Amino acid sequence: MTDPMIVSGTANDIDSLRRTLIAGSLQVQQQTIPKLAELGDAGLDVLMEFLQKRSDTPATWIDGKAYQVLYNSDAPKAKEFLLSHFPEGIVPLKSDCGINYNSLQQLLAAQDFQAADRVTIEKMCELAGPTALQRKWLYFTEVENFPSVDLHTINNLWLVHSEGKFGFSVQREIWLGLGKNWDNFWSKIHWKNGNNWTRYPNEFTWDLSAPRGHLPLSNQLRGVRVIASLFAHPAWK
Fold this sequence. Notes:
mainly alpha; GUN4_N; 2 domains; two-stranded antiparallel sheet; Arc Repressor Mutant, subunit A; GUN4-like; about 240 residues; globular; Serine Threonine Protein Phosphatase 5, Tetratricopeptide repeat
């Protein structure tokens, strides 16, 4: 039988975890959120309070982790809170082209990274226009014309919902750190092993055990020019 004290948490437990969540380092916050998730309604209350207090500032991956606990909870109060305070999700879904990124946010909040990767390519093709949407892949010249606002939205969705491990900006940072050496980059993010390209989809890692920068794939199967255009985009300057 489950100990009711573990389910509800003592007042001291809750107060201690609340203080830790507010004032702790990123690593401590990361460890605190799952502990609160195990404390039932009392833990959810702390997470809701935490997100509400931070709602005026841009979401970080810590906010994303707290949001995911609430999003994946069956508790009616959690669902009501998200519907009231974050109806579109934790990341504002801004677009200069009127594109709806809600499905991408939902998949990433549910940690369905493989489906989210497919939707990311679809949304980027939508950005490029009807022809790209029909062919289902991108020319590097189309990427050059992407609005910065939309690229930031896609990137922030991946960052916030992956503990900061995934996203175009993460990949670009790794690539720059390797002196823009593509071969070293492919190996570092596990898109290549020796001379062998990682095979889609089964050889990719679709969870947070993947190396930093592993996702999204950004049209990886079509060579270097698309991702080079992404990394050269003025959005990151």
